[in-house]
Amino acid sequence: MSDHDSAVRDWSPSVGLVAVAWTGALLSALWLATLWISGSDPPGRLIAGAATVGLAALALFWTRARPRLHADAGGVTIGGLRRSRHHPWPLVTDVRVVRVRRLGRESSLLEIDTVTADGDERLYVLGRLDLSADPEDVAEALSRARP
Length: 147
Known about the structure:
Strand content: 25-35%
Strand order of the largest sheet: 1-2-3-4
Radius of gyration: 19 Å
Structural class: alpha+beta
Distance between the termini: 8 Å
């Protein structure tokens, strides 16, 4: 394995995407406040509230889970909302790309199967938005980084 292949790699949602999510959460919160103060349109308040909560949760997750995926010679670390989980390479059982077709559009997902030290299995599914990269390219980089 060359020095280039053993380099530390990080993949995260793009900063622009995270900024758009925070901006959307702020705008929907302002919309909700306007509807609440006016006292009109109860269905609109429900929609604005759901949009605010959903966008804020997504923006918080993407902010907190940075980097979403980290790979080095020691293994992979998957970022999450509460904490990151490190999995040494011997406990990573499979890395594969799955192609799915939804709404007439084909996309790729990166699946990482791991086993914990106590035998529990975990499956991580990461898409293009999580990685800001093509999952096929990430899978290839992971296979090069794996000893």
